[in-house]
Specification:
This protein is an alpha+beta fold and 440 residues long. The chain is 45% helix and 16% strand. The longest helix is centred in the middle third of the chain and has 17 residues. The protein binds uracil. Uracil binds next to helix 9.
Length: 440
């Protein structure tokens, strides 16, 4: 096979065969095909797109370029969830315990913070003692006994994606819907769960800035999941505002715990209820409506909270923090942004909110930065809220006074205000299965 011919075929809109896709992916991973030829092919894909058959082949070959997790040692149907990224997204920390409390199995590999978005693994590590790197046997054992375990990525999951992503990043080909779909789904397929619920975020704090692109991406990912024999559904959710009130690490864990106690913010509670219901439905526990009621019950009777404590204990963490959140460290420095006039919040730049949290120490400014678990922001007022003189709009936290001072100026650029009430924001925008798109 000749790489030149593969590039030329795609450039003219042709459909790549499985053999051609295997040739370029395997050749790139083992170093036989140079960056410049793969870059040219990526750009051709960017402009010409991919058929569903090409996309399924590409994703499968990328998934199989590394370890394929075998979760057969865990009894029952394993359900995964994945978000395309957001600010304030602590969903896994609340949803996995709800699902486990209702009899589902969640054996989840999560990521660390990336750019302006946070990562579940960093958040969980803000619980003292919580280990996110544990042997496979122990991981299986915890899921078999407690129904849930969340760990960092182990082994080599989809190395082809790692290499391709780095190349896309410098060749302006990240924002290609088929390439994003294959990238995310290759890792999900390699992670081994039987059923998948996707959260495709859209808005100022998301990859997909508009709803139509988010729906197209979600549909492609559902096609890939279903084509690979894993039932997959997707939600489109609003990332024009941070999710919930808290963005950071231990303050997000506290918010997830409060939600499991029934005291969560409305938007985050709505997301948790819907995602838990979808995961339980895929696990065969009942209709979506029945599963949503089961999720409500797991919050009411504290069984979901107990599941979070059980996972924490089994992964070496101190479960007293789950029942008494006042034990968590607090940032030594804080700043309250207080409104000096009456107005509406008309718009938020969620990416800027995330970047401000990183600036405070909640994320990594360089690869090896140490995370400040106490750093972050509470957004007491978000788009659509009316603010009166003297109200706190947001509160910022850090262990570093200088960072706090800089961030407290920066956060103000993330908000737009005005005198007229903006349109009400939806939290969940659409629900997508293999044969329907329901818009909310
Ligand atoms: N997240 C991924 O894992 N891959 C992409 O291409 C984009 C977002």
């Amino acid at each position: 096979m000749v790489m030149y011919n593969i590039i030329d075929k795609k450039k003219k809109g042709g459909e790549l065969t499985r053999e051609e896709t295997e040739y370029f992916i395997n050749g790139y991973v083992n170093g036989g095909i140079p960056d410049y030829q793969v870059s040219a092919l990526l750009m051709a894909i960017y402009y010409k797109g991919m058929s569903d058959t090409e996309l399924l082949n590409l994703t499968d070959i990328m998934a199989k370029s590394g370890d394929m997790a075998d979760l057969s040692g865990i009894d029952g149907i394993k359900v995964d969830k994945h978000s395309t990224g957001g600010v304030g997204d602590k969903t896994t920390i609340a949803v996995a315990p709800i699902v486990a409390a209702c009899g589902g199995k969640v054996a989840k590999m999560s990521g660390r913070g990336l750019g302006f978005t946070g990562g579940t693994i960093d958040k969980l590590e803000s619980i003292p003692g919580f280990k996110t790197s544990i042997p496979k046997e122990k991981f299986f054992d915890i899921v078999n006994n407690a129904g849930l375990s969340v760990i960092g990525q182990s082994g080599e999951i989809a190395p082809a994606d790692k290499k391709l992503y780095a190349l896309r990043d410098v060749t302006a080909t990240v924002d290609s819907i088929p390439l994003i779909a294959a990238s995310i789904m290759s890792k999900k397929l390699a992670a081994g769960s039987d059923k998948i619920v996707l959260d495709v975020t859209t808005g100022t704090g998301a990859f997909m800035k508009n709803i139509d692109d988010a729906i197209t991406l979600a549909q492609k990912m559902v096609v890939i999941g279903e084509g690979a024999g894993r039932n997959t559904v997707a939600y489109i959710t609003n990332m024009d505002v941070p999710l919930g009130i808290a963005t950071g690490n231990n303050i997000e864990v506290i918010e997830a715990i409060e939600t499991l106690k029934g005291n969560g913010p409305d938007d985050f509670t709505e997301i948790c209820r819907n995602f838990s219901a979808a995961m339980l439905n895929l696990a065969g526990k009942g209709s979506i409506e029945e599963c949503a009621l089961m999720a409500d019950q797991a919050i009411k009777n504290n069984s979901a909270l107990d599941k979070l404590a059980e996972m924490t204990r089994m992964q070496g963490g101190d479960d007293r923090y789950i029942y008494d959140t006042s034990l968590f460290d607090k940032a030594p420095y804080s700043y309250q942004w207080i409104s000096s006039s009456d107005m509406y919040i008309t718009q938020m730049d969620t990416e800027q909110c995330g970047k401000t949290a990183v600036m405070l120490g909640a994320g990594r400014e360089v690869k090896d930065s140490r995370i400040d678990f106490t750093a972050g922001i509470k957004f007491y007022k978000k788009t659509g809220d009316y603010v009166k003189t003297g109200d706190i709009i947001a509160e910022l936290y850090s262990s570093n006074k200088e960072k706090l001072d800089t961030a407290s100026r920066y956060i103000k650029n993330a908000y737009k205000t005005g005198s007229s009430r903006p349109e009400k924001q939806k939290t969940i925008i659409a629900y997508i299965t293999k044969d329907k798109v329901i818009k909310y």
